[in-house]
């Protein structure tokens, strides 16, 4: 009787342990290959003849074919590294403006060789234009931007990094509007009293966000304070200079103050009034004087 050596037996056990059970699996043999072909229907005219605004969001339909050797998992139900369709923004000279685009799901898993048609079962791709100014178009061209569609295997790689083709269109992005020097968004957490006693004070949580391009300095010779004005029902100013409240910190453009406590004082005469919250850079300007909107609440004074 022929015997099996210990080494041969060990090798047999190892081979059996690594073979798949229950037939072949979807995982490719050998290195995974990232490859795609694109089907964009009539999108060439949409981008090359279109004009987009900074911050604008829109949806386009794209078709793709899996030219690789592994299944693209549309959702995180069997595989942790699911596939999204996204994009990158460049200027017309190829300089990167924004790498990370919004992610859009595939409608279903896509095995090697399978196709998603741009009209029948497309990928609905949501695109957001960066809120920045692109360089102006060069002479003789109407385009100043380039969008490049790409696929990403989350947590692993962008397909383009692995050598796959992208889908690119030149287009025109309008100039981003210049931010005002002084502008704010106010949040009173619905805490402004609807009724106050004449001449009384009230304190409550408040917050502001800097939507201008100048930093709000908490201290220094010209600090920025939160304040307010009182108007009567006819829109006439009753009290312009409200109490001042210091900010808890310096606030850069785009930043928020965080929560702080504001104190207001009611007019001394009973009636129906409107309080309009405003910011003031002491010795320079009230924000409303530069065109910034105020935050308005109605208050009944008794």
TrEMBL record:
Cite the InterPro entries for this sequence.
Ig-like_fold
> Tell me, which GO biological process terms does this entry list?
carbohydrate metabolic process
Q: Which Gene3D superfamilies match?
A: Immunoglobulins
Which superkingdom does the taxonomy of this entry point to?
A: Bacteria
Query: What is the protein's name according to its record?
Result: Next to BRCA1 central domain-containing protein
Q: Which organism is it from?
A: Candidatus Hakubella thermalkaliphila
